[in-house]
Design a protein that fits this description.
5-stranded mixed sheet, 3-stranded antiparallel sheet, 18 helices, binds protoporphyrin IX containing FE
């Protein structure tokens, strides 16, 4: 049980940490690569910061995800009732929060519906949505790149993929913002409830009127006479909607920021648009958009190097830190779209490896390529040193990114 006194010695995962993420992680990685940290709510967790350790942790079954056990561990620490649960419990029952065999079962069903062909079939739509947004931007001299482009592109894609009505998309932005940022427990639970209610309606409508879309495919997906229950469908659609847009928004936002900060890389991309695949991989490595870390808990004591993490503790696998480990990536703090960034952990690793990676890569590549073609003179409209990051333990994204287009 953590005490305030014991916590005083430990690094705190707060807004200041997030604003200086890589330098803070560098310090921890070089001094005590596996160590305890404290969340702003006073909850202790262990952080794993080296690449090798993080990669191994992601395939170690003793580092588990089951949300019920995670909840119990949080309850044990939650002496003051101040710890914010990551999500509304009705939406927790999805594969990202479960271990085998539950995880295996759900993932199998979803993979049947969310196929490579379904993603590839979306390509012309993604191109069209990007082109329309860029057209709308060209009427202005300056825009917030997040509002005008990075946000609407992936949300439109994931909403079309699942069949969410156009009028509800702003609600979605609000709900997911509340759920992912460090909002109050009450706001989080209200947003979760509103979203769950809407998803139930959406699924009922789709059952009544099946279409050629992912949601219909999820409803109809079967495996050995098994299918998703109503509750599992709601949680799954929730996971896809949240994972499918907040992440890709920040892939685009963080990518453009890195390109603006490194004009020679922007010039290289404009000169050779084929470099865009490398630009996306390097963005994922250099400044990954989601989950600078991902949560696990120990089901038994786990020894990493010289440290033994006891059973029943929360563990944060530091994806962002791992991607900046100089033992794995040379000159990790330079952004180089021609480097081989393969092996980065931005999409995770092992059984939970991101199911949406092909879609995210496609969207990121189309976004950066078309932006470079359309606005080759893109420049920051404010001091880049002053950019502010959203404070969240789940996502790593900017609050705004003002740019000049001409
Ligand atoms: C899982 C990152 C986009 C759906 C994950 C995990 C990471 C991740 C790190 C594993 C977490 C863990 O091991 O705890 C990203 C990044 C994205 C992105 C960086 C964008 C650049 C997407 C998209 C979708 C998606 C577009 C869907 C439309 C999922 C799902 C899982 C997942 C369903 C859970 C897989 C499982 O538990 O087996 N993602 N994601 N992601 N992602 Fe993504």
């Amino acid at each position: 049980m953590p005490t305030t006194e014991a916590n005083a010695e430990l690094p705190v995962f707060d807004a200041e940490f997030v604003d200086d993420l890589y330098a803070k992680y560098r310090e921890i990685r070089s001094e005590t690569p596996v160590q305890r940290m404290v969340t702003p709510q006073g909850m202790q967790l262990w952080v794993i910061t080296r690449y090798e350790d993080a990669r191994n942790a992601l395939t170690d079954p003793r580092l588990a995800k089951d949300f019920r056990r995670t909840g119990e561990i949080m309850d044990r620490m939650d002496r003051d009732g101040g710890i914010r649960r990551p999500f509304n419990s009705a939406l927790n029952e999805q594969m990202l929060n479960l271990d085998p065999p539950d995880h295996t079962r759900l993932r199998k069903l979803v993979v049947k519906a969310f196929t490579a062909r379904r993603v590839e079939n979306l390509r012309p739509r993604v191109e069209q949505i990007a082109a329309d947004l860029l057209d709308a931007m060209s009427e202005h001299d300056e825009v917030d790149l997040l509002d005008a482009f990075a946000f609407p592109l992936p949300i439109q894609v994931i909403c079309e993929l699942l069949g969410v009505d156009e009028e509800r998309r702003d609600d979605f932005r609000q709900w997911t913002n509340t759920l992912l940022d460090a909002s109050s427990a009450e706001a989080t639970s209200q947003a979760g409830a509103a979203m769950a209610e809407y998803l139930v309606e959406l699924i009922a409508a789709k059952r009544a009127e099946p279409a050629d879309d992912l949601l219909t495919a999820l409803i109809e997906a079967t495996e050995d006479a098994d299918r998703l229950s109503e509750g599992e469908l709601v949680s799954m659609v929730f996971l896809l909607l949240v994972a499918g847009h907040e992440t890709t928004v920040n892939l685009i936002g963080n990518g453009v920021l890195a390109l603006l900060r490194n004009p020679e890389q922007w010039a290289a991309l404009k000169a050779d648009p084929e470099l865009v695949a490398g630009a996306v991989e390097e963005t994922l490595r250099f400044d990954g958009p989601v989950m600078h870390g991902t949560l696990r808990h120990t089901t038994e004591p786990v020894t990493i190097g010289e440290v033994t993490i006891p059973e029943g503790e929360l563990v944060w696998v530091g994806l962002a830190s791992a991607n900046h480990d100089p033992d794995r990536f040379e000159a990790p703090e330079s952004f180089d779209i021609t480097r081989d960034a393969q092996g980065h952990l931005a999409f995770g690793h092992g059984i939970h490896f991101c199911l949406g990676a092909p879609l995210a890569r496609m969207e990121g590549q189309i976004a950066l390529r078309r932006l470079a073609e359309r606005f080759p003179d893109l420049a920051p409209a404010a001091e880049l040193d002053d950019v502010r990051w959203r404070f969240s333990t789940l996502i790593h994204g900017l609050k705004t990114l003002p740019v000049r287009l001409k």
